Amino acid sequence: MMETCSSPEDKPSMFVIITSFTIPGMECIIGIIGNSFIMVTNGAEWVQNRKFSTGGRILFFLSSSRIALQSCMMMESFTSLIFPSFYKEDTIYDIFKVVFMFLTFCSLWFATWLNIFYFVKIANFNHPLFLRLKWRITELMPWLLWSSVIISFCYSVLFYQQVYYTSCNHSIPDPFSNSTKKKYIINTNVINLAIIYNVGMFIPLILFMLAAILLIISLKRHTLQMESNTTGSRNPSMEAHIRAIKSISSFLILYIFNFVALLLYMSNIFDDDSFWIVFCKIIIAAFPSGHSVLLILGNPKLRNTWGRFQHQIWSCYFSSCSWTLSGK
């Protein structure tokens, strides 16, 4: 796939610049705030107890990767819109894509391990393999997290040489003058992109879907057992199953939209000034932000801590207003 990119003189339209800065920018800011809250909350637990819980460790890794991811998205968007000639240089362009995909892969892997951890803790199976995993999940999780970082790095590095190549054509005639101007050409190897992208995204997704299916099976078995015992009310185990399935379903919906938008965005099939580029950026930025909000609302500890944090913010605000009015 070959796309003729804008020259330094042909910056994106003001509409594209404003829209790209406002909507995706606000989404990234919301995501950074939400993930910073998750990271600080779990980091404070580590400082206080001198150790991480397994769930807290995963959330710390996940929130850290998403803060870095959305910061990278904002930096890349700013550079591509304001300094297109610098952004389209071969090395700079490749570095942005490598870092972006590394953080994307890490974020997906960490979210997958979080859901697998919830599945192992909540589900009820008597299979020896599951019981062994349930017993060793705390011991295995640090190794799984760091292995995911290494795997993500290996996949993302392939984007540096195997997917993109930028060049500059200095001989494009300028219809408004007798001179020529330069156009930046991005060559995208679509086959390599599809292979690297799909392999990097599908492996954690398969694990994620397997955990979701087994969790639904566990809930079904638990429901049948409750009916056989003629118990009308839900017990804590059933409530935990339902909360986990809702969380997984919400994540899966966000992931599907993000998967399609990210593939289109990385393929360079749209012009830089296209509405679809802006739309893809909006979807991509909404994924980590939306999931962080769902994590806070779905986790009782995070939800209660966020409520206390909001109460303190409002108390400080009203105290400052009262002090100002009394001073007058």
From TrEMBL:
Keyword vocabulary terms for this entry: G-protein coupled receptor, Glycoprotein, Membrane, Receptor, Sensory transduction, Taste, Transducer, Transmembrane, Transmembrane helix
InterPro entries linked to this entry: GPCR_Rhodpsn_7TM, TAS2R
Compartments where located: Membrane
Record membrane topology: Multi-pass membrane protein
Any Pfam family hit: TAS2R
Domain G-protein coupled receptors family 1 profile: 34-265
GO CC terms, sorted: membrane
GO MF entry, a single one: bitter taste receptor activity
Transmembrane parts of this sequence: 12-38, 58-83, 95-120, 140-160, 195-217, 251-270, 276-298
Highest taxon, organism lineage: Eukaryota
Family designation: Belongs to the G-protein coupled receptor T2R family.
Name of the molecule in the record: Taste receptor type 2
Gene: LOC110216181
